What does this fold into?
Amino acid sequence: MISPLRYPGAKRQLVPVIEGLIAANIPPPRLLVEPFCGGATTTLRLLGAGVAEHGILADVDPLVAAFWKTAAFDSAWLLSAMRELKITVEEWDNWRAATPRSRRDRALKCLFLNRTTFSGILHGRAGPIGGRAQASQYKIDCRFGLDGLTRRINGVAELAATGRLLDVWQADWRTTLRRVSERFSSLAGDEVLIYLDPPYVDKALWLYEWSFQSREHSALASVLLEDMPYRWLLSYDDHAAVRDLYCGRSGQVTLHVSHRYTAAGSEKRTVKDELLVTNLPTIPSSDRYRVLDLQSTTNQAVLD
Ligand SMILES: C[S@@+](CC[C@H](N)C(=O)[O-])C[C@H]1O[C@@H](n2cnc3c(N)ncnc32)[C@H](O)[C@@H]1O
It folds into this structure.
């Protein structure tokens, strides 16, 4: 399962690590909820691999939520509307200025801008791929391959048609958590896993329309550490503010994950440092991460 959206902050390289952590814990999740879904890479892959039985995607951004709802439950319309799009700088200006009223048009705006804007950024200052003059070798349509997008959107629709992707909500994370407890009260706490990938601490204002202020990061930490009936797993870029919020607090384990990768257009190997914080009871040993902080009082972490 590959996401049809290119998303700033997508945690592709973390997915195998997350999969290993979930698979080490019993029972496996019956419901996986992603309240900051963005490009939804993690949920799509975990549902595709059968690591969780069912999933729900949610995001506060109306464009993002409309895209997932339409890809999942109205894909025939989306695929046919996508084929009618003209991928030009003039159309890019029109979509940028548009304020679509219907869910379908918001979905199309999301798809168009995500696939034609620098780094997939939907809002703010980022311009079209290839620049306004289109003088670069990469033109505005270079990420708009219809066959690949069709396959990916069909993949999302298939997850929905088979009952694995249950729903998509346009909601703030607090509303998402409240709805889960209202609508899935028959599930036990250990049958639900909430995977959270909130906006970056540093760069969120530039990347997302709905970004977090520091008090939101601490409000989220309070809910997760003090008031959470479910299993949860949180990913962040490694940042001192995040370590301050979680390390040393009971009920969590913090893992440090480093990836080596070569950035596009560069020869240099770069290291990206990320944190995974979780209340999962079992943490298997792995060379993919280092345990920073083991403060779990309710959980028994298993470490070799
Ligand atoms: C780091 S991105 C998620 C990236 C995603 N995990 C992926 O793989 O593509 C953060 C997302 O959180 C959303 N967001 C920001 N504030 C939010 C809030 N208060 N409630 C829910 N979603 C929010 C943004 O719209 C953005 O899509």
The domain at 12-294 is CATH 3.40.50.150 (Rossmann fold). The beta strands are 31-34, 54-59, 165-170, 192-196, 231-237, 253-262, 269-278, 289-294. Residues 297-304 have pLDDT under 50 and may be disordered.
